[in-house]
Amino acid sequence: MTPSHLALVVEDDQRHAALYESVLRGVGFEVRLAPTAEAALLLIGEYPFDLVVSDVKMPGSDGLSLLREVKAVKAEMPFLLVTAFPNVRDAVAALKLGAVDYLEKPVDLDELGAAALDAVGSSLTSEGTAFSPLKRDALSAVIAESPLTRKVFEDALLASPSCSTILVTGESGTGKEVLARFIHENSPRAGRNYVAVNCGAIPANLIASELFGHEKGAFTGAQAKRSGRFREADGGTLFLDEIGELPLDLQPVLLRVIETGMVTPVGADREESSDFRLIAATNKNLAAAVESGRFRSDLFYRLNVIAFEMPPLRRRPEDIIPLCRHFMTSRRKQFGSKRLSPAAARMLRSHNWPGNVRELFNILERAMVLSKSDAILPEHLPPHLRQCVDTVSSDDDRKPTAIEVDSDVVKTLEQAEFDTIRDALAKTGGNRTKAADLLGISRRSLLYKLRLMRNNTL
Q1: Which residues make Cβ contacts (< 8 Å) with residue 65, sequence separation at least 6?
Q2: Within 10 A of 278 (CB to CB), how many other CB atoms are there?
Q3: Given CA atoms 136, 140, 146, 149 in this order, what sign does their dihedral have?
Q4: Please, what's the b/e burial string for 404-443 (b: 16 or more CB within 10 A of its CB; e: otherwise)?
Q5: What is the third-level CATH fold of 411-454?
Q6: HEC profile of 269-334
Q7: Domain 5-120 matches domain 411-454 at the CATH topology level
Q8: What does the alpha-carbon distance between residue 103 and residue 86 come to, in Å, rounded to a whole number?
Q9: pLDDT at res. 419
Q10: Where does 314-405 sit in CATH, by number?
Q11: Which one of 168, 271, 342, 410 is CB 3.0 to 4.6 Å from 281, fit for a cystine?
């Protein structure tokens, strides 16, 4: 592998330094060594390092002091700390100062290599893949505080560059088309057409014409030639929503188009090519539909190359308040700036959301319309939400403790989450991997949350 990044290892123990150097070279780094923080600062002045990996306890200045000095002059420099004496206070301090990770000795070598590549946004060796800086930006724009949601988008981001067919499942209103657009916008086809079709909204006698096009005079009312959605998606992405509603007699036709990339318009005697990337979605159980004979098994397996399930909102309550903030901000010009009272926020978090995100946004729009002040109060929410939770007094709701975007309620939730993570780190001696297992989330999700906390004042 040709080295593509330059790393500085700051370690006074020569055996550890040589080991870290070997690991980093193995995943594509060129490496320089420094035995002390003072020597490291001299090298940082000479070389354009992409990453610093430093021990914490060293003769002279320690790793935290080095981190502070480096960040003062090169704020964007990724910095990874390693220590034989882990403690929660140092871990939190390191993250607040800008460290991207905090590893415990004896270091898991695979974890070190993955953490280093993750820090610089490089591609992993054949054993895995990390995200580039551009992809990190894509994920930062996603409203996904829940580990369930974030994992879906992380995997979708990995699948975006391919041309593989994707099947998105999930209940109605969970955001299946949001995921489809995310995949398209982060694919090589992003500059071309994104064409969406709701198969359940088109009459059965017209769906073939809608998808494949038709010739002039092919049927009554066909007064002009039409190219069809597959041809419109040439070079881009075709999103077929509610694919489970596709008539059974059209399913073999769709299967052939997917496999050959050739479309035959209704009434035509020739085929036309189309280079499309297909994403299909459904709120139905297609496997059950196959068993009952309502959906062809060969088409199901052809669609189910890469599958994603959008979790219902009741399984990702961490997303509720962030989604509220997003919606309220997006409607600010229409309804004015609004803040969400603590009681209203508690009601929204307590609801089961059978209609998922679509229901949430509809309720928020209703509340913004009914609120004549700058606050959304329990009285602005539908009665069935107000009946679920005991409310605080309306006087309390009108106090400045209510939230808008940077809310006390959200901060309280973040503090509770931080406390839980801090306790897990304490129980595992600062070991991130063990803490993630204890919390029931992925290590990547734990790192993401810790990095968010780094910028807060908790």
Answers
A1: 37
A2: 22
A3: negative
A4: beebebbeebbeebbeebbebbeebebbbebbbebbebbb
A5: Arc Repressor Mutant, subunit A (1.10.10)
A6: CCCEECCCEEEEEECCCHHHHHHCCCCCHHHHHHHCCEEEECCCHHHCHHHHHHHHHHHHHHCHHH
A7: no
A8: 8
A9: 73
A10: 1.10.8.60
A11: 168
> What pairs with residue 32 in β-bridges?
8
Q: Which residue has the tokens 């769709």?
A: 254
Give the whole-angstrom CA distance, residue 365 versus residue 340: 13
Q: Show the low-confidence residues of the chain (pLDDT under 70).
A: 1-4, 85-93, 121-137, 388-416, 440, 442-445, 448, 451-458
Domain boundaries, the chain: 5-120, 147-311, 314-405, 411-454
254 CB burial (10 A radius; 0-12, 13-18, 19+): buried
In contact, 343 and 377? CB cutoff 8 Å = yes
Nearest alpha-carbon partner for 69 in 33, 104, 43: 43
Tell me: domain 147-311, CATH 3.30.565.10, correct? Answer: no
pLDDT of residue 90: 64
In angstroms, the CA 160 to CA 189 distance is: 9
**CATH number, span 5-120:** 3.40.50.2300
Is there a contact between 116 and 110 (Cβ–Cβ < 8 Å)?
no
Q: Burial-class residue 2 by CB neighbours within 10 Å (0-12, 13-18, 19+).
A: exposed
Question: How many Å apart are CA 7 and CA 301, to the nearest integer?
Answer: 45
